[in-house]
């Protein structure tokens, strides 16, 4: 009798191919991406912000071939996703809440997102942005969250942030920097080491 079992697909790390394939225009390929690092326009409702940062490996070196993906609610605290049917929170047709950015084209291997500050998704929850990291050496992409330094009172009550050991919470909090161009938040991601970013199992 013939053996009809298929062989297991060989494993592979999640990078660095995502950065080139999913953010093609950023890397000079003539292909239309489904999103970019620019989530907001002058028509988007809410407070315009920039998020900048770098990804560091375990040796403290910046990673030049990672891809960062973010998902967030709009200024009303609603996600532009079919699963979010809360009609009491308005959708913004000028905001999709989803962006991608590679780390290999800006000076210093930075990533940068132009977006708006999200609203709280429900009472007792601080504003946050979901952050997903794709890079070489990872067998599966890593999930974390970005909270805002200037939301200290809300952060202190957030049920998810409060599950993180107090001494590690700072790795999830973006630092506010006021610049001549507007409000900017600095959020560095450290993959390993004593000051490693906290990642979540989803």
TrEMBL record:
Entry-linked InterPro entries: Intradiol_dOase_C, Intradiol_dOase_core, Intradiol_RC_Dioxygenase, Protocat_dOase_a
UniProt keyword list: Dioxygenase, Oxidoreductase
Natural source organism: Proteobacteria bacterium 228
Record-level Gene Ontology MF annotations: ferric iron binding; protocatechuate 3,4-dioxygenase activity
NCBIfam families: protocat_alph
Protein name, entry field: Protocatechuate 3,4-dioxygenase subunit alpha
Family classification: Belongs to the intradiol ring-cleavage dioxygenase family.
Domain Intradiol ring-cleavage dioxygenases: 51-79
Entry-linked Pfam families: Dioxygenase_C
């Amino acid at each position: 009798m013939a053996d009809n079992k298929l062989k297991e697909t060989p494993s592979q790390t999640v990078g660095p191919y995502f950065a080139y394939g999913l953010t093609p225009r950023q890397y000079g390929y003539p292909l239309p991406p489904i999103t970019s690092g620019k989530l907001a326009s002058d028509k988007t409702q809410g407070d315009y912000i920039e998020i900048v940062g770098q990804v560091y490996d375990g040796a403290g070196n910046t990673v030049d071939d990672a891809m960062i993906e973010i998902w967030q609610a709009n200024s009303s605290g609603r996600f532009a996703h079919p699963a979010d049917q809360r009609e009491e929170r308005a959708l913004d047709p000028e905001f999709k809440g989803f962006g991608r950015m590679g780390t290999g084209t800006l000076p210093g291997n930075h990533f940068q997102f132009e977006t708006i500050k999200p609203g709280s998704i429900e009472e007792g929850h601080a504003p946050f942005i979901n952050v997903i990291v794709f890079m070489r050496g990872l067998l599966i992409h890593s999930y974390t969250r970005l909270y805002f330094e200037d939301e200290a009172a809300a952060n202190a009550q957030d049920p998810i942030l409060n599950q993180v050991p107090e001494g590690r919470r700072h790795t999830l909090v973006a630092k506010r920097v006021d610049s001549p161009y507007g409000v900017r938040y600095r959020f560095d991601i450290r993959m390993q080491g004593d000051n490693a970013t906290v990642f979540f199992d989803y």
